[in-house]
Design brief:
Two copies of one chain form a homodimer.
Chain A: E1 4-11, H1 21-35, E2 43-47, H2 51-55, H3 60-67, E3 75-79, H4 84-97, E4 103-110, H5 117-124, H6 141-156, H7 160-174, H8 188-192, E5 196-198, E6 201-202, E7 212-220, E8 225-234, H9 249-262, E9 271-273, H10 279-288, H11 297-302, H12 319-323, H13 327-343, E10 355-362, E11 367-374
Parallel strand pairs in A: 2-3, 2-4, 9-10
Antiparallel strand pairs in A: 1-7, 1-8, 4-7, 5-6, 8-11, 10-11
Helix pairs in contact in A: 4-13, 7-10
Chain lengths: 378, 378
């Protein structure tokens, strides 16, 4: 099995965009293909969650292959809720590593604005198991992660301000990210006193509704940022089946698999993008990924250990919370931020970043992917 | 690369079912897993087109892994319109062949009944490029294939009765298929005089709206029907971009790739399942797959060459036209019919069938997959 590298990347701005999902995808892909030196592409994989419900469009793989003039190459869409991008990237990586394809274009996108809140909420809830008593209960994702946050605070002594500190960190990082949805300076006071969404989560604790697309070109060889390993795991989509509300096994397992495959440990990682769909999710993720002990994540946040100068800078892109969260694009956008960090020209560059990790979550823990990447020549 | 075989299969009946997509998927998968001898499963791939729009449910991969108690294994959904099942099967095959997984469960399903015609028609049209002037024109799939049929008749001298003969053949096969949606004896007269859908296609020329699920277990080794090769290709989703309306390049290319990878030719194939979403599509497909010359498919139909005793028995399951077409399930159901044929216990068994081929189309030619399988020990 040969090395596999990311040799080009493209991304649109994230936010409310007066543009179709097709148009956004094409822009991100063209940018990635140009940066990659316009290689012959052998397949196109698209990560997307709910373009049927949200954008009146499926067959994104074929649309993209056709519009980009790539010929009659294999194409498809991969869906796994908010992990759709990470899953598409993993499929492409596995098949390039196996020698099935030499060069693959992997894109992710979601169109989420321009419709009423009910339509969007209903679409997002497609990522729950709706054929269950839980699906019928009216539980939403903010509701789920709000329960987790209350339980976490009860168990470990964290306070609402620690959630706010996650949101503040990510907002501060987003200010320097030209594609981020929210780049306005804010304060802990503003975050703490924002409109409540679901107790104890306020507006800034929740990732926004966003449009956007992202794409990377991956290729056999070492001509770029190398993908060292991929880990994927599933978990129950039902809250009532969780053995422990404060443990997201898919995140833990996917990381374990990726670390083992790369022969690395958390201490080897220099920079991380992880799935902060809610501020609470970031705190659990830094524990599941092995950077901090269980129940200690909030202390790490308080001590600034997940920022530049701390132990491990997390979500230097601004994360889902402030960069934005166009669902299918998120997993690819995370890879792009890690690639930029390892190429030495990211927003909020981490000095001498050698190894990076990206973690993409789907649902409340239904899916997780972890990818570990290494700087060229490092 | 090791051999890869289908070691178990399960399928629900097709038709109007008062049952959720999750319930159908679980039934098909349990049957397949039991037949396979309850192996340890390393990943679950689900082919599905539009369960968001049609069944208020995404994350089918995770739901299935969880409900079947398969543990925290990788899972995902693959979408490529009506080729979703074939694409999911291909992904699984490629990754087992590459050694990434040893055993994979591949399922396909669609829930399409129980809602109004407008909702279903709108969902099916998600398989067109709706962000184009063509998408806005009101063209539907019956409309598209009706145009093809008129053009084919004009170019080659076929008549409406040849379309009807395809529908009759597949209906006659379906009568013996216990899972088929339509098992009532019919006549050429009834088919020719059925309610018109879109000129020249009548009711029997169009595949129905169906619920259903199908699943197979594939594994490294030769302990079952061996998958010899997989071919996939894309094509334009736009009618206006077709170079030749009577040529579906994705079908042709996917077959070419599968033949080449297997080192086989059309004459080596003993039995075929192909994508007869409309009677017209079957005639074009038998030409594109190389069984008959371009423009001669209708003559082959007239001469009974695609039936038992002819050159190549086609759609012995009853095909999409009479077995039914629960979109995401179709590609897997085709594989199952070929597996049954090669195991020697299919409905409408073809004597001494050694090599079989399954072709699954998405959209109007946006996607096609072709898989070639071989009888155990043959």
């Amino acid at each position: 099995m040969s090395a596999v590298s990311v040799i080009g990347r493209g991304i649109t701005s994230f936010g409310k965009k007066d543009e179709s999902i097709k148009s956004m995808l094409i822009k991100a892909c063209r940018e990635a293909l140009i940066e990659a030196g316009r290689p012959k592409v052998d397949a196109v994989f698209v990560g997307n969650f709910a373009s049927g419900a949200l954008a009146n469009q499926e067959i994104l793989g074929s649309v993209l292959a056709n519009e980009l003039g790539l010929g009659r190459i294999p194409a498809l869409k991969v869906e796994g809720a908010c992990a759709s991008g990470g899953l598409a990237f993993r499929q492409a990586y596995q098949l390039v590593k196996a020698g099935e394809y030499k060069t693959v274009l992997v894109a992710g996108a979601e169109k989420m604005t321009g419709m009423d809140t009910e339509t969007v909420t209903k679409a997002i809830n497609l990522a729950m198991d709706n054929d269950s008593n839980e699906g019928a209960s009216g539980l939403t994702f903010p509701g789920f992660f709000g329960v987790l946050a209350n339980r976490y605070m009860y168990e470990y002594g964290a306070e609402k301000k620690h959630l706010a500190m996650v949101a503040l960190k990510n907002r501060q990082y987003a200010i320097s990210n030209p594609i981020a949805q929210f780049r306005k300076e804010t304060s802990l006071y503003e975050i703490m006193n924002a409109r409540p969404i679901t107790d104890p989560l306020g507006l800034f604790d929740c990732s926004p509704i966003s449009d956007g697309a992202a794409a990377v070109v991956i290729q056999q060889g070492e001509n770029g940022v190398e993908i060292l390993s991929s880990g994927q795991a599933s978990g129950t989509p039902l809250m009532q089946e969780a053995e422990d509300l404060l443990h997201i096994p898919a995140t833990y397992e996917s990381a374990k698999r990726a670390y083992e495959a790369a022969g690395l440990e958390p201490k080897d990682i220099d920079v991380v993008e992880l799935h902060d769909c809610f501020s609470m999710t970031e705190i659990i993720a830094i524990e599941e990924l092995g950077f901090f002990e269980k129940g200690k994540g909030w202390e790490a946040i308080e001590q600034g250990l997940t920022k530049h100068g701390g132990i491990i800078p997390v979500n230097t892109s601004g994360g889902l919370l402030s960069k934005g969260h166009p669902i299918g694009a998120t997993g690819i956008a995370q890879i792009i931020q890690i690639v930029d960090q390892l190429n030495g020209h990211a927003c909020n560059q981490v000095g001498n970043a050698r190894i990076g990790l990206a973690q993409n979550l789907g649902g409340t823990g239904a899916y997780s992917t972890v990818h570990i990447l290494r700087r060229k020549g490092a």
